[in-house]
Amino acid sequence: MQIRILGPFEVLADDGVPADVPGARLRALLIALALEPGRVVPRPTLVDWIWGDDPPADAPGALQRLASRLRKALPGGVIEARAGGYRLTVHPDAVDAVRFERLVGAARPREALALWRGVAMEDVGPQDSDAFDAAVTRLEGLRLAAVEDRFDADVGPGDVAELTDLVAAHPLRERLVAALMRALVAAGRDSEALLVFQRAREALADALGVDPSPELSALHGALLRGEPAGRAESPTSNLRAELTSFVGRDADVAVVRDLVAEHRLTTLIGPGGSGKTRLATETARTLTPPDGAWLVELAAVGADGDVAQATLAGLGLRDALLGSTSNADLTDRLIAAVRDRDGLLVLDNCEHMIESVAAFADRVLGECRRLRILATSREPLGITGEALWLVEPLAPPEAVRLLLDRAGAVRRNLVADDQAPETMGRICRALDGMPLAIELAAARLRTMSLDQLSDRLHDRFRLLTGGSRTALPRHRTLRAVVDWSWELLTDAERAVLRRLSVFCGGAGLDAAERVCAGAGVGPEQVLELLTSLAEKSLVVTEDNGAPRYRMLTTITEYARERLVEAGEPDLARRAHLAWFTELAETAEPHLRRAEQLDWLAVLGTEHDNIGSAMRGALAAGEGQEAMRLAAGAGWYWWLSGHRSEGIELIIAATALPGEVADETRALVYALVVLFVSAGRGGEREAQEWIHRAYRYSRRVPDHHPVLGLVVPLERMLQSSDAVLDAFAPLLGSEDPWVRALARLHMGKMRIVLGHGGWEADQYLETALAEFRVLGERYGISFALTELGERIAVRGEFVRACEYFEQAVAVVAEVGAVEDLIRMRSRQAQLYWLSGDKDAGAAALADAERHAERVTWPDALAELALAKAELARWCGDAGEARHQLGVATDLLGDGAQWALIRAVTHDLLGYLTADLDESRDHRAAACRAATESGYAPLIAQVLVGVADLALLSAQDEQAARLLAASAAVRGLPDRTHPDATRIERTARSRLGDEAFAEAAREGARASWPELVAVTCPT
Q: What one-character-per-residue DSSP string does 648-707 give?
């Protein structure tokens, strides 16, 4: 189907047969849809197009009836009703007007003009429709511009008659005047050409009060001098040469070039000091429009100034145009001067007169179709068709390059040591990669070192004040840059901006509405105000599923100063604390169920805010508030790989004075127990916290699930006889998570006490199944590692590694990096024992990678101890000693815990070649293991004593000690390669029968007595 409106209205079906579309309104509807082929035209637009200012009472119904009639008149399926409007489903080139515009845009004016058959839409014309009239006017204007394009490209004597008529009809169109003059000269009628110029000059002066454009005047001058009547050369730019290099934005220049080529209005937006002006001028410098690129500097123009006047001055036309006595306003004069120019205007620093610039740009671009505008502003102009490019901070490498370049101009020996690049990176990150801030910092390096500059950036507004004397006043200091933006804000925008500074790492909408509201700002206003601040480049919006709002560091520091000035810091901080305490409390129970990943993600996004809220409460001495947040966030810190930070904050909260609810205090104390008992030691410290948690939990009628675990822990401390079944009462708990954890501990206690049967395994397997039903990944990983360890002790190393692999996969989901390090370290040992050295090396490397992100000393010490043991197995005593030293250094005072002392002395007993020294280490290891009461550890150190006996030629005693070790553990430990080595050697020396007899004696003997024989005190 073809729709022709560039002349008499006509619709042709695919077979060329005309389709009858009767009536002005029906035709107007089709034309309105045809001008937007393939796009949905909203119903209000169509109503306005058809009925103008006098729509019927039931306009939607009337429109629907018209659309129904139109469907019947046209081939089936071309009119579609869509949500909000209607759509015409034809190819754009099926509409002659649309095809005409495409050809004009492609610089093919002759083909475009050939589509015209008369006056546009001459036989349609709905009455009182301004929209319809505007469309006709626009098309006729485009037609006239295309005629000008055609004559610009090619004019000769045969065009004189047509051009004479056109100039008579449009005496102010200077391109037509110039074309007529050239045609007359080509026909040898130079004097007539001069007369045409004189008439045009008079017409311009009478109508607009302006002189002819430089191009037309240049053509006139050329005729007077008898030169060829070509287009005269004139200045094509007022862009100044820069004194500094352009760093880090080459890719941006390429993108902005493309935007300028594709769109007639492009605006570079971004915060003050981000480099918008420099990017705009560098881009303009690479463009070569026929009539040049011109910079219009608006920063010095007042908010109520005239954009047109500044533009005339930038174009160098000010004196000629303002000297006229005409009553034409400045915008009219400017349009008359540049109407036919194919050039680029760079409107710089538009934000303080945004409304005026928007109106100016809209009008000028509407009437000067060959002109393009590249604007810079801290917010968009907000015009339909505007293309935007956000000028973001420089990436770290480019930021460092800029600092190095600018600093190198004032200090030749800047990079003097290996640490300088790292320090420069730190400076650039602190300054958000903002070019102006970096240049101000570079100026300071005339009299400061890099380290001094870096250390003083906390007071950046006092420090960064040495800008160029020739720069705009608001670009000479960092504070002035932000002051400029602040002064342009409304009171409500200022309130939201300063309150937003209390957040760390950004804010979600709900949080912002809660914290930023108040004192003149309602919660329902916050979204609109945040949107406005984002448009003004003071707030950065990030959308990874749900929008978040944050500020650059410099803006945050400035806003915090303003928050203090307003007397609101405590109010904002308390609102922030309340919101994130409620969030943590809401999330906490979900962290023990299948939805824990979703809630960990929520809390992970707000990690910095939660930490900031806690530190604020601690600094203010708010005990109740700090303990509430600790109770809500403690399990999150444990699960998510933030244990060092979590225990530091929780312990600090417990130290604050003040009234705290008993349940809150008991829960926080229980969380401390979880943290301090996580490694191989800390028993005594854990005992103290267990007593405290138990004491307060007894005052609470309805226990939190975690508090239920305190009772068996207290029972175990009170009586060693209670250890085996201390958790049995919890097997009937209403909470399935508590039941599963109790079952897991029932199995673990049997391992701790040296029960060698399958009962422990059954408890662990049942717990694993229950945790899997719940979807609770920490419990799943706990059960898997305990089962994997049990399987490994029996010698099934490959199968044990599979269990550890499952545990690693589960823990990785929640982000408990500390546990990943422990699991991979142990897995590396088990792979080594299985003979797969490559897999062991890979597991250890993975543990090392995770360790780079962790400060939790227990996890790092676990890795060092595993590496020490592996090094010993491989015969590298020096590396083993080194890693053992690393572990003890990491643990600090914790190296004196019984479990750690036992492991340390046991390892040193293998590493020394001196039997007396080894004997001392073995004795110390046994004392520490006995103190711990941990059967697997006692069994481990007994193997070491057996090694000492073997080295001392006490082969039967070595066999007895190996059997005693297995008896203590409840079964032989196949994960101990030394036990295998000792057994093989002793058996070869004694013979199978004697070895078996000695082993039977050891299994029946008291292990302390056996140790006393080998390590006499």
A: HHHHHHHTS-S---HHHHHHHHHHHHHHHTSSS--HHHHHHHHHHHHHHHTT-SS--HHH
Among the listed residues 667, 666, 663, 629, the one whose alpha carbon sits nearest the alpha carbon of residue 649: 629
Q: Per residue in 605-620, is it b (16+ CB within 10 Å) or e — as a string?
A: bbbebbbbbbebbbee
Residue type, 422: E
Sign of CA dihedral 981, 982, 986, 991: negative
Give pLDDT, residue 466. Answer: 61
Provide the token pair at 511: 């949080």
* CA-wise closest residue to 669 among 691, 684, 648: 691
Residues in the chain, overall count: 1017
* Phi-psi label, residue 127: left if phi above 0, alpha if psi -120 to 50, beta otherwise: beta
Whether the Cβ atoms of residue 861 and residue 887 lie closer than 8 Å to each other: yes
Looking only at the bridges linking them, the beta strands covering 372-377 and 265-269 are parallel
In this predicted structure, what is the pLDDT of residue 787? Answer: 96
Task: List the structure tokens of 99.
Answer: 């095809």
Query: Please, is 189 exposed, middle or buried when counting C-beta atoms within 10 Å of its C-beta (0-12, 13-18, 19+)?
Result: middle
Q: What share of the chain is helix, strand, coil (3-state, %, to 5)?
A: 65, 5, 30
Contacts 24+ apart (CB under 8 A), 610-613: 610/580, 610/583, 610/584, 610/636, 611/504, 611/645, 611/649, 612/502, 612/503, 612/504, 612/576, 613/573, 613/576, 613/577, 613/580, 613/581
Residue 362: the pLDDT is 93
pLDDT score at 328: 46
Minimum mean pLDDT range among 68-72, 360-364, 496-500, 953-957: 68-72
Question: Could you give the 3-state DSSP secondary structure of residue 770?
Answer: helix
- The bridge status of strand 540-543 relative to strand 547-550 is antiparallel
In a 3-state reduction of DSSP, which class is residue 296?
A: strand
Residue 274 has pLDDT above 70, yes or no: yes
pLDDT higher than 90, residue 58: no
Q: What pLDDT shows up at residue 619? A: 95
- Give the pLDDT band (50/70/90) at residue 856: confident
Least trusted range by pLDDT, from 49-63, 96-110, 171-185, 316-330: 316-330
CA 761, CA 789: separation in Å to the nearest integer? 10
Q: Which helix (H) or strand (E) holds 148?
A: helix 130-153
Is the distance from CB of 747 to CB of 703 less than 8 angstroms?
no
Lowest mean pLDDT among 195-204, 220-229, 254-263, 914-923: 220-229
Spacing of C-alpha 911 from chain mean position: 50
Residue environment code for 215-227, b if the CB has 16+ CB neighbours within 10 A, otherwise e: bbbbbbebbeeee
Triad 723, 726, 728: Cα angle to 5°: 135
Res. 970: pLDDT tops 60: yes
**Strands (DSSP E) found in 239-371:** 265-269, 293-297, 344-348
Cα first-last separation, the chain? 108
Is pTM, for the whole model, over 0.85? no
At 297, phi and psi to the nearest 5? -90, 115
Contact between residue 639 and residue 596 where contact means Cβ atoms under 8 Å apart: yes
DSSP 18: B
H/E stretch holding 88: strand 85-88
In sequence order, the β-bridge partners of residue 389 are: 268
- Whether the Cβ atoms of residue 697 and residue 710 lie closer than 8 Å to each other: yes
Find the largest Cα–Cα distance for the chain: 134
239 DSSP 8-state letter: P
Closest C-alpha among 489, 492, 497, 443 to residue 465: 443
pLDDT band at 930 (very low <50, low <70, confident <90, very high): very high
List all residues 6 or more positions away from 114 whose beta carbon is below 8 Å from its beta carbon. Answer: none
Which amino acid makes up residue 92? P
How many Cα atoms are found within 13 Å in the side-chain-facing hemisphere of 11?
Answer: 17
